[in-house]
């Protein structure tokens, strides 16, 4: 699928870090969906990250919608979203063009594209492309929110520092995350994490961590067996984010140490609904949503761009050498990745809803809401 | 994608646990690929698991190839693989038909299929369908092996018991795993794990764990950026296996506690090749293979079928109740899942090779091998 | 897409003419759809053609449904349909194995599959595979009929002999075609066509023609702009039938000689509905159904299998030579192709309905019908 | 597939006639393909048509390549092509906004998009979007030409006037068509057609016709059986062009009146190659290219925009009324459609080549050429 993802809803991404623009085409939206530009702007800003711990590169990241929207609502035709690259300092990279940066895609891109790729700033492999994913996702996050489907992500763990888990009152935590500038539930741990990132920056190094995401308000019955499982779909989408190296659902790796009798989620009938008394399986059984919150974790590796000297090879001369990467680096991207994870999750959910309910899935959701009252 | 997966190579799966047959269609294979029936049989037997710790249900699991093979070689047209369901004891299930089993897809299937699904033995959601995945995968594993691409999986961890990691001499470990009846590298740990499974069985309970997989011999440059990343493709495929709840690459969750300077894999030029001096990223940078072994972990939850009493709901009466599941259960499926993980990995790799090299990918691999000599 | 077609609904076909079996997997059906086996049998028989003018090969063409159906209704999981090859006389073909038959796929298959394909009876390229398409289509034709969507096809032209066009009272013509053993509206022309086919047979030759299809009862608004146009989708499906060499919509080639003022279909509001006063565009504007009958023509070439001597090449010796094809041939397949055209049309329509209305498209159609009353 | 087409190569189109821009994303190109901007400009100009018989709307149609090209060559990453809409006179349309134009997509778009679509100038259904198809196609036409694969289209018939057929010396005719401003082989017939178009314009009417296309230099063995037939793929692509109402291959409708013995193309071995002595099947047997020129016809309906009064309905008031469409209309689009047919054909061929030969299909073609010398 390369740069296009989705079954009924399709997202196609393009662009290079130092090219003219990046962007995407989002096709298959219902007609009449409200486009809230302020909402998009606020999500784009969140992706830029807390300035104290984020990149020196400051793009306006203005999203132009070139098509598919008329009088503030979706037409149902494809949306082309364009983000110009303005703050480009290619000079920072030219000196190291023949040296492949460890942990980056420089070497694999060289093999895959036979040397024809734009190497500046990582080219098509740059984290900058997640701005396009975020823009598309923001449109869907807004639409889902309007129908009571909320997506929230916090940093569960960062270089050994751990946030508290999502609490019993998930709605409250989701609300809290919407307000947070830095996506951590416990204020004290947030402070410690920020200090850790600053410390890494001073060392010329970087840190990674694990994100935890919850989705509330989803109907039961979304997803498909086998290759169309909710887990297959979400993981496929999340692994498109460069820094992601793992995706686990429910209690994740903890499954390895439990008995089945501990891991299984018992069913119960309460207040006219079938629920599970625990949610170890993260809201998904057999690949299909069961109506409980969908929960998963995303492993984010430390940013590969560090300023410490690193061993590498000169592609032209084939000499072993040591490189130092200058320029602007993020000592951590995990807080920014949280926004992209939300965006891609929104995309997958909207695609699942489209498959289940057809073009008018927003209306089906709305009618469901009315029935509940 | 529901029951079909793949970009150039397509795998379509069908069947229910207690229906007439299960099977799959595998389309897009190169012509002239040798079909080794003994190899298929041996892989199918491995999936059945060590009899001491596996299910009472013993299917012959004979794979009939109905099309696409002529004189022992693939034609290039679709292979239809059929496995009859012979050892079916539906009576075991009928008494509990209205009770949804915790940890199973019974409830979500009921919502998704509106009650029309065959509930016997989990129907289309049964682990039995992995026999079809395994049959298809075995054909590809054999072809890849012939070209020097080996896939090996061991149980890294089972209910708190840990195997040794893959060693420096990966070729040796791969060979060792081919011989193993129970896929564990360290004999002593294998004994402990088997004892643990037997113990769980006696308790009427079950255990899960984590698998670790390595693939050696892959060329650099496979995969695509964004949604076509090797990680996206492998995880999409693995999450189609019912018991899988997590997929992590390289050092996986350990990324959360490392500095970038520790996590990055330095490049070096040695013996006419560019390699990395460590392999924390699991052979994939920016979604594309870098020529090092591709390594990942798969989290397997404890088998949900246990004989201990469990809380649940009667779907018809909406009463809260307690159920006991009779019949044959696996106290662990992780050793059997190892085979399915190998099979699905082989499928994804063959699809990636098809995309990169076209119809004649086997020949391209062969010529590569000759060039190396 | 090779042997799989469809966006939401997926059809995957497999098999060779003289292999063990042919069949298909039909995935993405709504759950609870009634399977009428008598209806399937009657459609399969129609595809066998009027015995007086059809092939000597008489297969039982019994369709086994191996999965996806429970208690006579679809589960919503994939249906695997299997048709055994029983009446196989490979000896008829062996003598000519190295000679490529003009008009057949023998030569192109040799190039495409590098000689590994099963050559007997045309292998995977045999018209026999349309039995699998027909079986899948029959299931959908029945479901559509139940909701008032009828598909009818007649032979508009056969070797210079012309049937009358569909009349004003299309419902009446559709009914008439359901009864017809040989799909022609005008009895006298039917007699002439049958005589013409018999005459061709006596000469050792064959004839082709043009089919005309009408679909009534479709809602407006199905289809998509650009590559998802109803015309794109129907033509893609029809050209998968070996004998088809052309597909035209509405008045087809007659558009070439009309003024726009003659070709355009004026709109009118009548009895609470917007209709067009003519239907030159065949029920489709801009790729999307307008609520009028969808009409198209399919060009069927003369059966390439004839017993007259033909010039050809021996693939092994590269000698120019003359061959005579023995065995059983259809002097015409157009009347049989009519059934396959209906089947593939039903598939495309069901796929379009799935995309528009989601999983529950049958229910949406049913509610529409109730609203109309 | 909506606005995305292709299996390995993917083309995604966006935009509305009177929006900010139209464009497309072309993903899956080989790296290192030369981008010839002059060639693109010349193809874009051809699409604008001979000014004497074409639309008053004159767009610069400047194609900006926003990504995927570096130093004049493709990187292998997605190309985003953007064409700004400059010459927009929306006022022309506003007065008729509630009247649905006969032969246009106004009514079907209203149903499909529930009134949210941009109605100005036909919005997403405008012929203007073919500029994006043409830009993408031009890139591929140039690459194919470099490897000796030529695509040529002429007007076979226009409102009763007929051009001569492609001659024995197809290479000569292809060369001739490259030079032609108006794509007709016979100069005299070209004059008559131009006069006919002018005459229609004076009457406030429009005319259609039939295009004939030939592709030379294709290798044998491209395409797939069943749904992946070359005919399926080309027709799917061509029916995405709004004016197309029919696609026929080889001798097309003439198959209806021939005997099999006349229609079959005998094989012969000549000069070290297997060829067919006639080419009635248009270079395709069983869905796969046989190495002879691929030939097909495309039926183009008369432009629906005419200035004569036409019966229609007011969507708001539901009143039957008569409308007159003002503004700029093309009295014929067939000569412009010829360019779009070439473009879409180039896309399909490049996709087929990608599937057959993988990422390096250009190199495989080049090596083939060298072998031939």
Main traits of this protein?
homotetramer, 373 residues, 10 helices, globular, 31% helix, five-stranded antiparallel sheet, alpha+beta
- CATH topology of chain A, by name, is Chorismate synthase, AroC fold
Could you give the order of the helices and strands of chain A? EEEHEEEEHHHEEHHEHEHEEEEEEEHH
**Architecture per CATH nomenclature, i.e. the level-2 architecture of chain A:** 4-Layer Sandwich
Strand content of chain A: 15-25%
Write the layout of secondary structure elements.
The structure is a homotetramer of 373-residue chains.
Chain A: E1 4-5, E2 10-15, E3 21-27, H1 37-48, E4 64-65, E5 69-70, E6 73-74, E7 79-84, H2 91-94, H3 106-112, H4 130-146, E8 150-158, E9 161-162, H5 170-179, H6 187-202, E10 209-216, H7 230-238, E11 244-249, H8 260-263, E12 267-270, E13 273-276, E14 284-285, E15 288-289, E16 294-300, E17 310-313, E18 320-323, H9 334-357, H10 361-372
Antiparallel strand pairs in A: 1-2, 2-3, 3-7, 4-7, 5-6, 8-9, 8-10, 10-16, 11-16, 12-13, 14-15, 17-18
How would you characterize this protein structure?
4 copies of one chain form a homotetramer. Chain A has 373 residues and is α+β, with helices and mostly antiparallel strands. Chain A has a single domain, classed as Chorismate synthase, AroC fold, CATH 3.60.150. The first copy, chain A, has 10 helices and 18 strands. The first copy, chain A, has helices at residues 37-48, 91-94, 106-112, 130-146, 170-179, 187-202, 230-238, 260-263, 334-357, 361-372, and strands at residues 4-5, 10-15, 21-27, 64-65, 69-70, 73-74, 79-84, 150-158, 161-162, 209-216, 244-249, 267-270, 273-276, 284-285, 288-289, 294-300, 310-313, 320-323. In chain A, the strands form 6 sheets. A 5-stranded antiparallel β-sheet of chain A has the order 1-2-3-7-4, with helices on one face. In chain A, strand 1 (4-5) and strand 2 (10-15) form a beta hairpin. In chain A, helix 1 (37-48) crosses helix 4 and helix 1 runs antiparallel to helix 9 (334-357). The longest helix of chain A has 24 residues, at 334-357. Chains in contact: A-B, A-C, A-D, B-C, B-D, C-D. Strand 11 (244-249) of chain A pairs antiparallel with strand 11 (244-249) of chain B.
